[in-house]
Design a protein that fits this description.
Layout (H helix, E strand, L loop, with lengths): L31 H5 L32 H5 L3 E3 L5 E4 L5 E3 L4 H11 L34 H15 L9 H10 L8 H24 L5 E9 L5 E10 L5 E10 L6 H14 L6 E5 L4 H17 L5 E3 L2 H13 L3 H16 L1 H14 L14 H24 L1 H4 L7 H26 L5 H20 L5 H21 L2 H8 L11 H4 L3 H31 L6 H15 L2 H9 L9 H8 L4 H10 L9 H5 L2 H11 L2 H15 L5 E2 L2 E2 L2 H30 L1
Parallel strand pairs: 4-7, 7-8
Antiparallel strand pairs: 1-2, 2-3, 4-5, 5-6, 9-10
Helix pairs in contact: 4-27, 6-26, 7-8, 9-14, 9-16, 10-11, 10-12, 11-12, 12-14, 14-15, 15-16, 15-17, 17-19, 19-23
Protein name: BED-type domain-containing protein
GO molecular function, one term: protein dimerization activity
Keywords: DNA-binding, Metal-binding, Nucleus, Transcription, Transcription regulation, Zinc, Zinc-finger
Length: 701
């Protein structure tokens, strides 16, 4: 994500070698070229075996083609029963029966290069199925089992977040058949069955890995509705490992049954926690601020408190609260922003207009702008529209006047509109800087978010009390203040206080005033002594007991002195917390986890508590997914995925991205090896084709 002026972009670069666009597209949106460009089938000679096969075909001597246009082109088309049209056998494209054969030839050359290579056995002018001749492979030639191709396609579906139904399209199967008629793609049902089995196998690995986690864990909940009107919940687990590295893993994606209320959410959540044996180890839950989620979390807290398992708290999503606050600030200027966005869309789509805009901004010294500009309706895109008017208003007006016939006068902003944009832009600039910091922070802690939200509340108060603020902006600020107070009320408790002070950048000095009052510090000390100091003492005393047994029950004089000192240290356990809070907070850019890793020897008990509490997340969604266009791509993927693939596809993708190996039952799928085999087979086929051409050339000589 890049929040710099003129370059706001939510697109995350794809790091996969497959060059797959992760934005969801239905199979109707995918051009055949996307299949032909896949690495596993590049540069394949359609005459030889496409990916290699264990089958051997007898050599067939190709017959000569007739020299008529009809025999060259029409054999690749089939005539419709009504005799009024012809349909391409490769892609299904239809043409009128009166279409010139030259146009049919151009279709074949452009859409299906290589159709006319030597080796075709089609000799008659009447339409008939295409036969691609296979050469018998020399012994020792690299082969790829066709199941390998299907596994590579599974990898593609996972990376691109596409449903298995994508592979049921005839044009895709025909494209592979054109390369090699022996290729057999699995049926749609088999792909789904394989995905289900892979999901079960990998889920077991996830469960095993979580059993090794020694600290408390926190969970976050996110919700969405698909095009089938099915309500889903994702449950993600987070913790800090013994090396002070932040860990995060998706546990499950659950279908929440009708009526999708708090009770249904609670039962689905508790089922997931029990599946992974986490119900006694969960410290907190961050939700999406919806009333149903709050009700479910409250029920879970009552359940855990009743079992006296461990302290538990639920946290509202700061990013969603901030997004609603900002939306109130934008409400008055939304119509103007829509007008500006219309201009930017035209600007992005016209190379000539974009070039003029760059030249004019340079002439007017109105900054350097990287096109295309972001047009998302999310916060980063809306701020981009305001920024454009404030920083390149003259250039925008000049381009609109120059292209008046294309753009029309509707895009020209009035003086009142420009004035409103300038006021809102100035008011919301601190909000933009805040979201920029939130999105780019390496580890977003509760303490840092409370620090930022306190700053936001101060900006709102200044606007409300300023004599220079217009009434319409003060009214907007009043609504913003209500939402800010609602969030602050939800997070003002002992749990968030303890989490905040354990951030070495915040401690008690930068705690918001709403948290700094009361006896939270005394309660934090009591919690520390009760839940962390005593556990260490228990482990130490158990060690002494074993030593006494070895010594026959006798204890040396030196050991008695050592025990007294240890007990004194334990009785003064709160000195760790007191000493920690008495020191100056670390600078804001400090890496929190690295700080604790270095200082854990100074604060052995307090660092254990910090490992638990710093894993608590202040947002239920990655901020960049909420504030920028990256969220649009994720929303499309979620919305368009059918129910029978949602859980498996999204979970498997998340697990593989997190480093868990893709497995089918007990077998790990080695994709690096599959790619090596595919490349080797492709190279052998290419060499075979070259040898064939050289042999023909020598014979002609």
């Amino acid at each position: 994500m890049n929040f710099e002026t003129g370059t706001v972009s939510g697109r995350a670069e794809n790091q996969m070698d497959w060059n797959v666009n992760n934005a969801f597209k239905t199979y109707k949106d995918i051009e055949p070229k996307s299949v032909m460009d896949m690495a596993i089938i590049q540069n394949v000679d359609p005459i030889d075996i496409g990916l290699g096969t264990s089958e051997k075909a007898n050599p067939v001597v190709p017959t000569k083609r007739k020299k008529t246009m009809t025999s060259v082109y029409l054999k690749y088309f089939e005539t419709a029963p009504d005799g009024k049209s012809r349909r391409c056998k490769f892609c299904g494209q239809s043409y009128s029966i009166a279409t010139a054969t030259g146009n049919l030839g151009r279709h074949l050359s452009n859409r299906h290069p290589g159709y006319d290579k030597s080796g075709d056995s089609v000799t008659t002018s009447a339409p008939q199925p295409i036969t691609v001749i296979k050469k018998a492979q020399p012994q020792g030639k690299a082969n790829v089992d066709y199941d390998h191709l299907n596994w590579l396609l599974i990898k593609w579906l996972i990376l691109a977040s596409l449903p298995p139904s994508t592979l049921e399209e005839k044009w895709l199967a025909n494209s592979f058949k054109f390369l090699n008629p022996s290729i057999q793609l699995w049926s749609g049902d088999k792909y789904k069955a394989v995905f289900r089995e892979v999901f079960r196998s990998m889920q077991e690995d996830v469960r095993t890995s979580l059993e090794q986690v020694s600290s408390k864990v926190s969970i976050i909940l996110d919700f969405w509705t698909s095009y089938e009107q099915i309500f889903y919940m994702s449950v993600t687990c987070q913790w800090i490992d013994e090396h002070w590295c932040f860990q995060k893993i998706l546990l499950d994606i659950c279908h929440i049954p009708y009526p999708c209320g708090g009770s249904e959410i609670y039962h689905s959540l508790i089922k997931v926690l029990k599946m992974y044996n986490l119900e006694n180890r969960v410290l907190s839950c961050t939700h999406d601020n919806s009333q149903n989620a709050i009700h479910a979390c409250h029920t879970l807290k009552e359940d855990l408190d009743g079992q006296k398992v461990a302290p538990f708290c639920y946290i509202p999503c700061a990013a969603r609260a901030l997004n609603l606050i900002i939306d109130d600030g934008l409400r008055t200027t939304k119509p103007v922003i829509s007008k500006i966005r219309e201009f930017v869309l035209e600007l992005n789509s016209s190379g000539e207009m974009a070039e003029d805009f760059i030249q004019i901004t340079t002439a007017y010294q109105e900054g350097s702008w990287k096109l295309p500009l972001e047009t998302s309706a999310r916060w980063s895109g809306n701020y981009q529209m305001l920024d454009l008017v404030c920083k390149a208003g003259k250039s925008m007006d000049s381009v609109i006047r120059k292209y008046d016939e294309t753009l029309g006068g509707r895009m020209v902003l009035s003086s009142a509109e420009k004035n409103a944009v300038n006021i809102v832009h100035g008011y919301l600039e601190p909000f933009y800087k805040t979201t920029n910091n939130i999105c780019t922070n390496k580890l977003l802690t509760i303490g840092l978010v409370l620090f930022f939200m306190d700053h936001i509340s101060e900006m709102i108060t200044i606007c409300r009390e300023s004599r220079h603020s217009p009434d319409w902006l003060k009214n907007a600020a009043e609504e913003m203040a209500k939402k800010a107070r609602s969030y602050n009320n939800q997070v003002s408790n002992i749990f968030t206080y303890m989490t905040a002070i354990l951030d070495p950048r915040i401690k008690s000095e930068l705690i918001p005033e709403s948290l700094g009052t009361g006896n939270y510090l005394d309660e934090a000390r009591n919690h520390f002594i009760r839940n962390y100091s005593s556990s260490h003492f228990s482990s130490m005393t158990s060690g002494y007991g074993s030593q006494e047994i070895e010594d026959g029950g006798s204890v040396s004089f030196a050991e008695e002195i050592a025990r007294k000192k240890r007990r004194a240290s334990l009785n003064n356990a709160t000195d760790e917390l007191t000493q920690y809070l008495s020191e100056t907070p670390a600078p804001i850019p400090t890496d929190v986890l690295e700080w604790w890793k270095v200082n854990s020897t100074r604060y052995p008990r307090l660092s254990t508590m910090a490992r638990d509490f710093l894993a608590v997340q202040p947002t239920s969604v990655a901020p960049e997914e909420l504030f920028c266009s990256k969220g649009d791509e994720i929303d499309k993927q979620r919305f368009c995925m059918p129910h029978d693939s949602t859980q498996a596809i999204f979970c498997i993708r998340s697990w593989t991205q997190g480093g868990i190996k893709l497995k089918y039952k007990s077998t790990e799928i080695d994709y690096e090896r599959l790619m090596e085999l595919a490349v080797a087979a492709t190279a052998d086929n290419g060499n075979a084709g070259s040898d064939k051409k050289q042999k023909l050339k020598n014979e002609n000589c």
